Amino acid sequence: MSLFKARDWWALTLGEGEEFDQGCLCVGDVDNSGSGYDKIVVGSFMGMLRIFSPHPAKPDELTEADAQLLEVQFPEPVIQVELGKFVSCSELLHLAVLHPRKLSVYAVSGTAGNVEHGDQYQLRLVYEHNLQRTACNMTYGPFGGVTGHHFICIQSMDGMLMFFEQESYGFGRFLPGFLLPGPLSYCIRTDSFITVSSTRQVECYRYETLAVATDADTRQDSDQQSKSSGKRLTADWTLVLGEEALDICVPNTSPVMSSIFVLGERNLFCLKDNGQIRFMKKLEFNPSCFLPYASVSEGSTNVLMCNHNNMLLVYQDMTLKWAAQLSCVPVTVRVANFSELKGLVVTLSSDGRLQCSYMGTDPSFFTAPKVEAREVNYDEVDTEMKVLQKVIREATRTQDILPRAETEEELSLTAVVSSKLDEVSCAVMAEMNGMPVPSVTVQVKIRSRTAVQSPKMTVCVQPPLAVTQDQFVLDSMGSGCESVVRFSAFLNGLYPPADMSGDIAVSYSSATELNPAGIPRVSQCRFVLPLRLVCCPSSAIKNGKYKITMDTNKPPINLSDVFPDFSEKSENNDSSALGFQLITGSRVIVLASKTSQRYRIQSESFEDMWLVAKELVQRFDRHFASLGVKDFRNSFTGPVPLPEYFETVDHHFELRVNAQKYQDLLSERAVQFRAIQRRLLTRFKDKTPGPLQNLDTLMEGTYRQ
């Protein structure tokens, strides 16, 4: 443990319950201000994108509101954010945001404000690419030696490298022998891509080799084609590490030779760009992230490294130069320059602790003046002390540390889900699998403490759940006003949802003395939909292919008391067994042991047991809490059902592969049919104009069929 602590220059905790990872942070001049100072861009798995321009706190200043330039909520999680020259017609920096199924490129611009509140920033979508495969990470650079622009390479979860030449899609290649995705980086000097495969070895692929390799639609096709014809994709060089890699970084410090830094679980590797080891440093701790950067000493590189002991370490090649204590465990680290201080260390933890810190001590230029010795008048000192104590008591009695008005929400939301299903269902699909699809009404009460302007409400639920209306434009509300909004939720897909909860957000503007036009604000709340929305009571057949047993520390209870809305079809009033028939899936059975404190959940489908298992745990907690029981515990003592889990994943992947092949076959047949149509029209158009006037219409109808 270091005697020194990293000094906080600026810090902030982002959101509540949000998660962040390695690619969720980047720094740079995102708005192209030309000032030479950086902004911080942070994305989260909850879909939030925030941009900050930090500065140290001043007296009576709200640093969080003043430092945050922009906040945007996306419907998809944000996996990675990067800054680069991603637009063909512009050499300005643009922001690339990677979602699981989408790549979006935005332009960030700022408009000077007319009031003291500050400038206004906007996020404008330039272009986006919908991905056919689930993305894992991305890297960018001047692929192929282009100048003035950057291309993007995305690695999918199934081992495909997808190349995007700005607004257009280039090509895709599957990595050979792929199992699990690893870190990915680009080396500018050799025009190569560096990754670490699941065989624990570093692999290097040249961009030229990837571009001319055999194209394929699936990994199976790639393997077959590489054995028969075309150029087989092979690595330029490989190096066995013998351990998993956390990250790869190729700092652009020298035009003569590039250094490839690989952070392993127990070692730090520095490689030459031809795959030879330059040096290796054994670590006595578990690292969490690192960042190589240029050193002031020629021929060496500095490395910032963070570990799970809350330490920030500075290495010059293999030599430890400094160590400082942090307040959290970062998952990513960057170095940024701001208006009042350069070279600040920016760190982000998995739970959203964003810090700008520096190492060393604060410089002090104050010299205490020489005090002339004089006699102390104790009566005057005692009188002054009493006056000051009176002032302190009055100030403590009349006000809090924060003004009361600032701690209360200006707009409060309350969502109430109806205890009964709608008599007339509002579902788009009236039936699924021969069963009616119900709906339930959600009532949202909106109360304003002060006057709010232009409120807009957004409703978000987990797919395939849907609502009758997800966007509401409300009237402006005065102080103390209340508004009620109703909508219905229902199932709108042929698979069960992963979660029954939903989120409601209301964005509005609140006027202040300095900004009468209003400051944008957001209020949020959450609601939980009933289980009856996706399943109905069923008879309890006491058999099933998949079984999970839950242990408790209390005697068995009547399942009808816990599930009164599902006990109507229990056989022979048997309170120890309940059946749940999922509308989109199989039947799930819950059995209570009559002699032990165990409960069993079983079904013919492994994935269908999740919703019932989660509902069972939540209802048990509420039931025993209503009885005043505080020591209730439930546990799962059996082996983790990994074989069943992997079987479900493999089955899902096979369905996706078959669907993709069928879609590709249809596309191929459509192209062939169009070619035949053009040949026929070209051959016979001048000979028989009468009958062939309807040939194009006839073949167009056949093509559509």
UniProtKB/TrEMBL annotation:
BP-aspect Gene Ontology terms: cilium assembly
Chain ranges of the PTHB1 GAE domain: 436-527
GO cellular component: BBSome; membrane
Record domain PTHB1 platform: where: 530-637
Stretches assigned to the PTHB1 N-terminal domain: 1-363
Pfam families: PHTB1_N, PTHB1_GAE, PTHB1_hp, PTHB1_pf
Membrane-spanning ranges: none
Domain PTHB1 hairpin: 639-705
Domain of life: Eukaryota
The protein's name: Bardet-Biedl syndrome 9
Annotated source species: Culter alburnus (Topmouth culter)
